[in-house]
């Protein structure tokens, strides 16, 4: 057999905090959970917020800190979207897990080991409403012996009766300052060098998502060595170079449809994600001094529509071409509507 | 063997285009803590080639000893059991598959099959634990549920398994998945790069290549390397020795679309619409994807229309393609687009020429 590759974890996992106190920027939840560690009291919890802000990390950390490695398996059930969570599956799994009685509430090996079990429902926003409804009863039935942790990106996808039973915590996108200090910590451990500009670029392009920032950092470190510049980070991030956005906008200003079509074709052939292009176009248009408010409104209306169409799975080329055509008509003050009676 | 396969570079050091990406990939896997990767870029730009060469870089030539299997998995979906059939391509170190082939059941592929594969760690004779690679194609075609199901698997089993995801349009991959990968953009090669590949093939095949001929093939390829190589081989079959202005024939279906376009430019009437419907059906039956068909229609129309009409027609093409995504029967929306075009064009003709 061929030699096997040794594996070590990617940096996002390597630098996942193991303790609640190391979770950065989410002070409120950290305070409540620190208290839990002392009193062993814990309400049902609902964590929500954008990707890469520490939700899963926090839930796993508190579960480990409460029970320690030995009891973890028997006391913590983690169900996430990678498990089938249809109504029946959820019911049986939770029932089987919750039904086994737990021992006395004594501290073991320095861990609080409270008398309840924890059920973590990660990525709960992808559960159907029916499955969530079924959970209401289950939660009530086992409320003495279990605590539920719901985790999701969108709180609006969690049905009210579940949400109202939980203490809710919003996980905020990480601030530039916190992001920077986490990144600097990793740089120190890995022996990397980042200047101030690169640090600030990294926070900007990862938009408060620390997982993304760490992935970019590792990518750049492997590709460009231990001294990393702002440019290196941009090149691994998938941000579209400003020249490309500029060229498309210039083609729209020219009033020449074929030119704009050519630019759109280039964007697609170069593989730039159109959703990303729409956000960057939006930024440039909104901030431009030489575009009137009315023109901006006309352009942005279509940008919004195209974004929605892309989410529905519409074709990238056709959507971007329509955006370009509409932008051209706005910038060159051509009529918006077709002028012949049909 | 077709030239596209025969001349697919096997190692990262042998690639003719995307040399920079290839070198970067080499550095990326030099340590064993490489993150998950998401390759994206247009069709025929060279993603598959790079992924295969990357596997070879990681695992040596054993990654090329692949077996193709058609497997059926029995899956317990709560109240009932379902069968899912999938084709996998696997070596001792990696498994490649196309989970979106399972259609609306793709969620189960991710939850049951992929998760199982990710969990199991390969162990060598000395008891050392290694990791394997799962290559998932066309992840942009996965349903939202299936994509959500992938999120935690990517984190939980990252010590035993790395994912390499591949797709055309990364806008269709959810933010949460993109945030878990290093994103690698593979742009379509420029025409001069395509020419280089064609010249390389010509040399290997001992062909006389008249100056300028490769350039013409490249120009007609729409920056798809695969298409350029395929049509280069077709030219070789049709006529050799090459001549500089030898015909480079478009694909049959494209010719058929041009016919439709001249039909509807000539006459706008219910009768014509009816005739065209037959032709659209024909194309769909021959497995031309409806969005490709619509884009080709637009492409041909844009070459013939007045500037002001171009804006209008491209708007409706985008409009009906979107509706087609949401709906179920592609033919309805294709036909609606044709009808819309006819009505716009007729109004334009009447206004202009009376
Ligand atoms: N607040 C934080 N403090 C420290 N590290 C963090 C924080 N947030 C994210 N990270 C880093 O990012 C990685 C991903 O975080 P985590 O899995 O907790 O995100 P999440 O909020 O659950 O995201 P998603 O909604 O995509 O599941 C962690 O492994 C860790 O390295
Ligand atoms: N780096 C390269 N150098 C030389 N030739 C290449 C290179 N990459 C690809 N090719 C040629 O182009 C053909 C198409 O490439 P490939 O199959 O990798 O495209 P792809 O991006 O996976 O396309 P699709 O998205 O349609 O699956 C290959 O069969 C090979 O002959
Ligand atoms: Mg999470
Ligand atoms: Mg491919």
From TrEMBL, chain A:
Q: Which SUPFAM superfamilies match?
A: P-loop containing nucleoside triphosphate hydrolases (SSF52540), post-AAA+ oligomerization domain-like (SSF48019)
**Compartments reported by the entry:** Nucleus
Query: Which parts of the chain are coiled coil?
Result: none
* Chain ranges of the AAA+ ATPase domain: 41-174
| Record InterPro entries | AAA+_ATPase, ATPase_AAA_core, DNA_pol3_clamp-load_cplx_C, DNA_Rep/Repair_Clamp_Loader, P-loop_NTPase, Rep_factorC_C, RFC_lid
Q: Which GO terms describe its molecular function?
A: ATP binding
GO cellular component annotations, sorted alphabetically?
A: nucleus
Stretches that traverse the bilayer: none
Tell me, what does this protein do in biology? May be involved in DNA replication and thus regulate cell proliferation.
In the record, the note on similarity to other proteins reads: Belongs to the activator 1 small subunits family.
Subunit organization:
Heterotetramer of subunits RFC2, RFC3, RFC4 and RFC5 that can form a complex with RFC1.
Q: What is this protein called?
A: AAA+ ATPase domain-containing protein
* Taxonomic source organism: Eucalyptus globulus (Tasmanian blue gum)
TrEMBL record, chain B:
**Listed GO CC annotations:** chromosome; nucleus; protein-containing complex
The AAA+ ATPase domain extends over 33-192
Q: Give the subcellular location.
A: Nucleus
One GO biological-process annotation of the entry reads:
DNA repair
Swiss-Prot/TrEMBL keywords: DNA replication, Nucleus
Q: Which InterPro entries match?
A: AAA+_ATPase, DNA_pol3_clamp-load_cplx_C, DNA_Rep/Repair_Clamp_Loader, P-loop_NTPase
Record-linked CDD domains: AAA
In terms of SMART domains, this protein maps to: AAA
- Spell out the molecular function terms from Gene Ontology: ATP-dependent activity, acting on DNA
Xref: PANTHER family:
REPLICATION FACTOR C / DNA POLYMERASE III GAMMA-TAU SUBUNIT (PTHR11669), REPLICATION FACTOR C SUBUNIT 3 (PTHR11669:SF1)
Family membership, please give it: Belongs to the activator 1 small subunits family.
**Complex formation:** Heterotetramer of subunits RFC2, RFC3, RFC4 and RFC5 that can form a complex with RFC1.
**What is its biological role?**
May be involved in DNA replication and thus regulate cell proliferation.
The protein's name: AAA+ ATPase domain-containing protein
């Amino acid at each position: 057999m061929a030699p096997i590759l040794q594996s070590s974890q990617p940096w996002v996992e390597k630098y996942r905090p193991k303790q609640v106190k190391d979770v950065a920027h989410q002070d409120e939840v950290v305070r409540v959970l620190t208290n839990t560690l002392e009193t062993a009291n814990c309400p049902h919890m609902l964590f929500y917020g954008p990707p890469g802000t520490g939700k899963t990390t926090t839930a796993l950390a508190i579960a480990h800190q409460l029970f320690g490695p030995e009891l973890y398996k028997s006391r913590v059930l983690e169900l996430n979207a990678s498990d089938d969570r249809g109504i029946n599956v959820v019911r049986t799994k939770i029932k089987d897990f919750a039904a086994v009685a737990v021992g006395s509430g004594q501290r073991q090996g320095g861990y609080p080991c409270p008398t309840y079990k924890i059920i973590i429902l990660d990525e709960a926003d992808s559960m159907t409403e029916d499955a969530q409804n079924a959970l209401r009863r289950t939660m009530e039935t086992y409320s003495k012996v279990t605590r539920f942790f719901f985790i999701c990106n969108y709180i609006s996808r969690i049905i009210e009766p579940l949400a109202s039973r939980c203490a809710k915590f919003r996980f905020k996108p990480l601030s530039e300052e916190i992001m920077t200090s986490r990144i600097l910590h990793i740089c120190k451990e890995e022996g990397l060098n980042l200047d101030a500009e690169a640090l600030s670029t990294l926070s900007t392009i990862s938009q408060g998502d620390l997982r993304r920032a760490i992935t970019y950092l590792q990518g750049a470190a492997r590709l460009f060595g231990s001294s990393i510049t702002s440019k290196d980070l941009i090149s691994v991030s998938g941000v579209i170079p400003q020249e490309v956005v500029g060229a498309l906008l210039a083609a729209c200003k020219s009033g020449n449809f074929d030119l704009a079509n050519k630019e759109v074709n280039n964007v697609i052939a170069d593989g730039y994600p159109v959703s990303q292009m729409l956000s960057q176009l939006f930024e440039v248009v909104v901030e431009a001094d030489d575009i009137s408010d009315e023109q901006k409104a006309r352009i942005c209306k279509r940008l919004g529509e195209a974004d929605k169409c892309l989410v529905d799975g519409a074709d990238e080329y056709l959507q971007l071409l329509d955006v370009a055509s509409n932008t051209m008509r706005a910038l060159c003050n051509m009529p918006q509507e077709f002028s012949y009676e049909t | 063997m077709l030239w596209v396969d025969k001349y697919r570079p096997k190692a990262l050091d042998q690639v003719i285009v995307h040399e920079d990406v290839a070198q970067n990939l080499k550095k990326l896997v030099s340590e064993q803590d490489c993150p998950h990767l998401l390759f994206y870029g247009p069709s025929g730009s060279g993603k598959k080639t790079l992924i295969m060469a990357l596997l070879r870089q990681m695992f040596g030539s054993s990654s090329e000893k692949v077996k193709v299997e058609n497997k059926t998995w029995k899956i317990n979906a709560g109240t009932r059991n379902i069968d899912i059939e999938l084709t996998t391509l696997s070596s001792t170190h990696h498994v490649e598959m196309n989970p979106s082939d399972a259609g609306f059941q793709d969620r189960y592929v991710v939850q049951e099959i992929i998760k199982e594969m990710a969990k199991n760690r390969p162990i060598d004779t000395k008891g050392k634990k290694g990791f394997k690679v799962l290559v998932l194609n066309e992840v942009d075609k996965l349903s939202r549920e299936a994509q959500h199901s992938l999120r935690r698997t990517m984190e939980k089993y990252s010590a035993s398994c790395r994912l390499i995801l591949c797709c055309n349009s990364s806008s269709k991959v959810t933010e949460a998945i993109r945030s878990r990968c290093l994103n690698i953009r593979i742009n379509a090669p420029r025409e001069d790069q395509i020419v280089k590949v064609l010249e390389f093939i010509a040399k290997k095949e001992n062909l006389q290549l008249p100056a300028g001929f490769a350039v013409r093939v490249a120009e007609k390829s729409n920056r798809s390397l695969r298409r350029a190589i395929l049509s280069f081989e077709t030219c070789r079959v049709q006529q050799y020795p090459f001549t500089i202005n030898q015909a480079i024939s478009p694909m049959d279906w494209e010719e058929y679309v041009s016919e439709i376009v001249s039909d509807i430019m000539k006459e706008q009437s219910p009768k014509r619409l009816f005739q065209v419907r037959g032709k659209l059906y024909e194309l769909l039956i021959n497995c031309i994807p409806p969005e490709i068909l619509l884009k080709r229609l637009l492409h041909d129309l844009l070459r013939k229309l007045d500037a002001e009409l171009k804006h209008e027609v491209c708007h409706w093409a985008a409009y009906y393609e979107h509706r087609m995504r949401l709906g179920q029967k592609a033919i309805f929306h294709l036909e609606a687009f044709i009808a819309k075009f006819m009505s716009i064009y007729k109004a334009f003709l009447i206004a202009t020429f009376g």
